[in-house]
Amino acid sequence: MERRIVITGIGAVAPGKPGAKEYWELISNGRTATRTISSFDPAPYRSRVAAECDFDPFTAGLGRQEVRRMDRATQFAVAAAREAVADSGLDLPADDPATVGVSLGNAVGCTTSMEREYAVLSNEGADWLVDHRYAVPHLYDHFVPSSIAAELARLVGAQGPVALVSDGCTSGLDAIGHGADLIREGSVDVVISGGTDAPISPITLACFDAIKATTPRNDDPEHASRPFDATRNGLVLGEGAAVLVLEELEHARRRGAQIYAEVAGVGTRCNAYHMTGLRSDGTEMADAITQALTEARLTPESVDYVNAHGSSTKQNDRHETAAFKTALGRHAYDVPISSVKSMIGHSLGAIGALELVACVLAMREGLVPPTANLHEPDPVCDLDYVPLRAREARVDNVLSVGSGFGGFQTAVVLARPEREAA
Amino acid sequence: MSADGGVRTVVTGVGVAAPNGIGAEAYWAATLAGRSGIAPTTRYDAAGYPLRLAGEVPAFDPEQHIPSRLIPQTDHGTRLSLYAADEALRDSALDPARLAPYGMGVATASSMGGFEFGQRELQNLWSKGGRFVSAYQSFAWFYAVNTGQISIRHGLKGSSNTVVTDAAGGLDALGNARRQIRKGTTAMLSGGVDGALCPLGVAGQLSSGAMSTGDRADRAFLPFADDAPGQVPGEGGAFLVLEDAASAQRRGARDYGELAGYAATFDPGPPPPGGAATGLVRAIRGALRDAGMAAADVDVVFADAAGVPDLDRAESQALGEVFGPGGVPVTAPKSMTGRLFAGGASLDLATALLALRDGVIPHTANVSRPGKGHPIDLVTREPREADLRSALVVARGRGGFNAAAVVRRDV
Amino acid sequence: MSDARATVTELTVEDLTRIMRESAGEDESIDLDGDILDSAFTDLGYDSLALLETTGRIARDYGVELSDDILDGIETPREFLTAVNQSLAAA
């Protein structure tokens, strides 16, 4: 019999206050967490706003040693994982730790620590031949982000397959897909999955400035991320982590676990076109959606809510609108679609997982989060993007999509678990 | 139905960029001849560092192998990746354009991404300012870069991904590729070509405390030796074309063998003194079970071969536990390349396939015999001829990552 | 390098070709030394990323910043040179 995968626990560190409940509070009310960057002086940069987490590692329960050792992205992941595991009611470490795995998404590693340590070792950029004698003992772990997945594995006592999935901005979704694969093939029964990134650092600002990906709307941070709006002019960088506990359905049922949703289908494609550019027709994303729906054995018409990538760049929102029309047909015009990036920005390898947490809560609460700041719809983006205010709706089946540098296109379908196995 | 869904995955193409040879056959010839690629670092002035040796890929002229348009936007490691991927695809004689539109994808592994490119742009930012940072930095250093560039170069639109599990990644990428094939993708271009031989990368490697600090290239990296002095970093690796066996058969493709078994596990801490790493034992047994084989069916083991006494002992104990003391020939041709991070295990698997093809086990260079307390039959001094049907490849990554894979040829 | 160029008052097509080669390489099937002034950059094998890298280099070396609005409208080397040289003349 086919092994089905369900979500039994969620945890989040999103811009604003940490915690899944706080995250939902923010986005269900259409509030945004974007502000002028506070962690360093952003004055030299073209784009100077970001959606930051008000995260204190000590409040989150991390010890002094852990804070010293762990990059901010690792800290986010650990905090989100603790919340998710507690929420799932799982007793970890499990009796057989080999039945537990980790699949964590992350796009840009331990950027903040890497850059900080670079500055020290290079004498603030003066030396190509950096002085290794000033290195912190765990420098290697800041350079090779498998360290983040390893920290999670030790935290939850996972001894099955452990991996960091790094597919740019689809990492968070792809990590869920990989985790689901591990359970379906029988390698493990439980996967601690999700995504984390803490990219708000000078080098990230500089490289996004150079390609004009981020918005220059610095005078009005709250309204800077404007997916599908005619006046959108770039993405707002974000940060954070979300962890979802994935579990084999019978395993979850046997222990009487709460079940949020089934991971019913995952589709991934590459556009093989450009490292940063997108063709306007959205063909490959459309195919990823079709693949995910096929795997979920659902029709386009059965999708009740679409959580868009909606990054607020000119090209993405157009690309994605075209993909929805191709994959969902007429239904693309009827189904509510929204982008939470309007409120929490784009946290690269974390965002896919944060968006899935939003989807899970939309299903539970019967409420579709809005696209904030959507005042003047772009005529090219002519679908129902749920502007400004959340909308009540029965949500049984959700589609969430992502698109990333490198050409990655991913679609995930979540469904109510009580539906009959086909 | 079995876990593989009735789909067998075979290797139909191999491409290599290694410190002792560019191209699979050049590398293989060098390996059998015992020619090492470990030598004094030339990429930068290493005189002031305690690590002055490296396995650099020699004389790689990007202009000769890579389209001009890609050169300004790629790290050295991505150029080597593009070379190896291109060679693997040519070797397979598979034309992706003849497959279904999403019939082929890319699965790679990375450790530090395009790190030398990254160091240069960090220097531009910190010494001159944000305006001096390249428009390519946004993707040239990140971990998914090789997957993306290879996908674009060859028009591969199928499910693709990138894994970071330190040096276990070279097998985990291939495991991911096989998953995609089992789910219906016809073929995958997969593997790892990795390395960060720039000052910042080497500073990171030095912080691991595992590096070899001597100056003699033939005494610096001695896996399983009593006096193993540590690791030498290298760059390079291999890409392979993995293909649904039915597709390979239909088009009459030659195959090197089947990726018959794979498993990954995690060890949360070091093994007890003198004991085997339990997670590593589970990974090896898992890969054998996945291949439907017993330990006695394995003809040769390509070891992770850390070159660090404790880690070597944990591996040799694990091999002893699974195969019995001296129960199977064990080798570490990476003694001639250094540790290639996420590229090393992909290269080991390619090497294993070449060994199966030619019936010869390449030796572990510079080690005359395994040290005391290593219950293994280490192939040393010269290649050993043998009738080989299957090989086990073992890989470990810093922090507790283990992976094992079994390749097998039809007989 | 940027100091030496600060006095340059005109960007020539040869300058542009050289900078593009350095910033973005060149498509093997295209002769950049031929008559390219009115060819679309896309036909010359250069995408938006290549133009961003090129304009970044020109901004640093010549002190010329082209606004997004101007850049969006540029499709050929002639239009690009005109925009840069107008800006240089105004400086």
CATH topology (level 3) name of the largest domain in chain B: Peroxisomal Thiolase, Chain A, domain 1
Strand order of the largest sheet of chain A: 5-4-6-8-1-9-15-14-10-11
CATH homology superfamily name of the largest domain in chain A: Thiolase/Chalcone synthase
> Major sheet of chain A: size, sense and barrel closure?
10 strands, mixed
What is the N-to-C succession of helices and strands of chain B?
Answer: EEHEEHHEHHHEHEHEHEHEHEHEEEEE
Task: Describe this entry's structure for a reader.
Chain C: InterPro entries: ACP-like_sf (IPR036736), PP-bd_ACP (IPR009081), Ppantetheine_attach_site (IPR006162). Chain C: Residues 10-88 form the Carrier domain. The complex is a heterotrimer of chains A (422), B (411) and C (91). By secondary structure, chain A is of the alpha/beta class. The mean pLDDT of chain A is 97. Chain A has helices at 20-28, 64-69, 72-88, 111-121, 139-143, 146-156, 171-184, 202-210, 249-254, 283-296, 314-328, 341-344, 351-365, and strands at 5-13, 34-36, 49-51, 100-105, 162-165, 190-197, 237-238, 240-248, 261-270, 305-307, 337-338, 367-368, 391-392, 397-404, 408-415. Chain B is of the alpha/beta class and 411 residues long. Helices cover 32% and strands 20% of the residues of chain B. Chain C has one domain: Orthogonal Bundle (Non-ribosomal Peptide Synthetase Peptidyl Carrier Protein, Chain A), CATH 1.10.1200.10. Chain C has helices spanning 2-5, 13-24, 48-62, 68-72, 77-90. In chain C, helix 2 crosses helix 3 (48-62). Residues 1-5 of chain C have low confidence and may be disordered. The interface between A and B is large, with 86 and 84 residues.
